[in-house]
Amino acid sequence: MTGTVTLVGAGPGDKGLLTTAGAQAIARADAVVYDRLVGEDILDLIPPHAEKISVGKENNHHPVPQPEINEILVRLAQEGKNVVRLKGGDCFLFGRGGEECEHLLQNGVPFRVIPGVTSALAAPAFAGIPVTHRDFTSSVHIITAHARAGKPLTIDFDSLVRLNGTLVFLMGLTALEQVTDGLLRAGMQLDMPAAVIENGARGTQRKVVSVLSQLAANVRAAGLQSPALIIVGRVCSLSDALDWFTPLPLHGKTIAVTRPKARAGTLADKLRARGANVIEAPCIETVEREDTQPLADALQQPHDWAVFTSPAGVPAAVHALRRLGRDLRALYGMQIAAIGKGTAAALAAYGLTADLVPTQYDGEHLADALIGAMPQDGSALLLRAMQGGQMLPEKLARAGIRVTDVPLYDTVHRCDKADVLRGLLADGKIDAVTFTSVSTVEGFVEAIGADCTGFTAFCIGEQTASAAKRYYNNVKIAKNATIDDLVTCIEEERNNVQ
Predict the structure, then answer these.
(1) Arithmetic mean of pLDDT, 208-215
(2) Is the pLDDT of residue 61 over 60?
(3) Could you tell me which residues come within 8 angstroms of residue 119 by beta carbon, excluding any fewer than 6 positions away?
(4) How confident is the model at residue 172, as a pLDDT?
(5) How far apart are CA 71 and CA 68, in angstroms?
(6) What pLDDT was estimated at residue 268?
(7) I need a labelling partner for 253 at 20 to 30 A (CA). Which of 211, 246, 367, 375 fits?
(8) How far, in Å, are 317, 318, 344, 400, 460 from residue 330 at the CA level?
(9) Interior CA angle at 350 toward 343 and 324, to 5°?
(10) HSE of 365 in the Cβ direction (CA atoms, 13 Å)?
(11) 323-332 tens-digit pLDDT
(12) Which of 178, 181, 210 lies closest to 197 in space, CA to CA?
């Protein structure tokens, strides 16, 4: 049975600009054939079981020629796979999507198309440039400035000048002088506002706004590189006033997030909302333990408190109880403690309210709060990772509290993006790395090594910072052990540097 090919426009790069329909198609894929400019966080949405094939294209360098891409799509579909052809921007805007659909049609392969947000509109919007504006122009024209290898541009500049609209040239940085000279020779004013935007709609976006006659020289001086687009028109004069993206507090900073994949989103999203370019590179993962006997034995004894030291421990406890043929009613009669807001929220998702959350979210303050909340001969059931630190149980034991420590999951060091991180670090392109536990520090060091420098390590608490200081010199600690305070710490550090 022949499978289906879905062409998905991935947008300009950021996951936030991928359509819902596109994300759903990726989630159902058996194979994904993707381009170079598709963002890493979008590639992270590809299911683990799906085959991933990179056919990345660069200017005048196509490691996988278009005819071969066409044949790959047909072959995968004929194998009965649900195939996603993931293309940067929009499928049909200079993306050769039409050619791919024609080839699929000729070979009897069913297909569908999910449009994407084109950089021709997204990049100007992120640079404060409305491509149309009733006071300036009522039309926008999108032109490719990419000529076939060895051939000159074939653009009717005279007609473009007569249109009196906003002109957006895609894939045109290498031909910037040809574009500006062509427009000027066709009669466009020397002082016409114009702009070049690099890495549009991404946290590393840069722009140069100038008059047309000086645009090429100013872009060369600024060192802008591909991918970039050119905008020419009076609307470019609004860029400084309407630029909402560049002033964001973390714009221009590239930050690696090392939290487990299931937990990375909260921190990553907060950083992106502040303009950062985020690399989601989990360095640990949690693996639930199959052995439920320690939990079964623990439940034979009475306990005053059930203690959860991470959000991961909550579903691990639920799943372990299910394997025992029980549910959360097994904790009946116990009060429940959570190390922080995230863990309390995980409990709430299962209908449980934490009776105790310490004022500061770390093991030491959790121990102090528990000691103050129970009698000296009280008892605590710790439901946590096998690799949990010893400070919490030891401090409780010293206070005369009986502790039953039940390992529900293992924290395993794993980083699928180690090569990506090493390359970015070697090029000096990572400004900060965030650590939210001792295990994320150790997982990062195991994956990358301890000899890399040039970045600031931002840690959520003292224990995490102590681990980071064993390997790195530039370590900063959040005021309180919360994600919000970690983000604030990063912002304050940037302000201090500036």
Answers:
(1) 98
(2) no
(3) 11, 12, 88, 89, 170, 200, 201, 227, 229
(4) 87
(5) 5
(6) 93
(7) 211
(8) 11, 10, 18, 25, 33
(9) 100
(10) 15
(11) 999 999 999 9
(12) 210
57 in catalytic set: yes
Q: Which of 14, 15, 35, 270 is catalytic?
A: 35
Token pair for 64: 């996988």
Q: What is the spatial distance between Cα 316 and Cα 286, in angstroms, rounded to a whole number?
A: 9
User: Helix, strand or coil for residue 200?
Assistant: coil
- Residue 308 has φ and ψ, to the nearest 5°, of -110, 125
What burial class does residue 55 get, using C-beta atoms within 10 Å of its C-beta: 0-12 exposed, 13-18 middle, 19+ buried?
Answer: buried
CA of residue 305 relative to chain centroid, distance: 37
pTM: 0.88
**Rounded distance, CA 19 to CA 9, Å?**
8
Contacts of 80 (CB under 8 A, 6+ apart): 1, 2, 3
Residue with tokens 């973390």: 250
Alpha carbon of 292 to those of 241, 255, 299, 416: distances in Å? 61, 38, 11, 29
Q: Which amino acid is at 424?
A: L
Distance CA 195, CA 208 (A): 5
| Cα distances (Å, whole numbers) of residue 408 to 145, 322, 383, 419 | 58, 13, 6, 31
Cβ atoms < 10 Å from Cβ of 297: 11
Residue of 30, 44, 52, 57 marked active site = 57
Contact 280, 264 (CB under 8 A): yes
DSSP-derived letter for residue 15 is G
- Give the whole-angstrom CA distance, residue 126 versus residue 406: 50
Residue pair 136/143 in contact by the 8 Å Cβ criterion: no
Q: 254-257 and 432-435: which strand pairing?
A: parallel
Instruction: Please tell me the least confidently modeled range out of 60-64, 157-161, 170-174, 422-426.
Output: 60-64
Band of residue 495 on the pLDDT scale cut at 50, 70, 90: confident
How far is residue 406's CA from residue 384's CA, in Å, rounded to a whole number? 7
362 assigned to active site = no
Structure tokens at 463: 């224990």
User: Considering Cα of 309, then 310, then 312, then 314, what sign does the dihedral take?
Assistant: positive
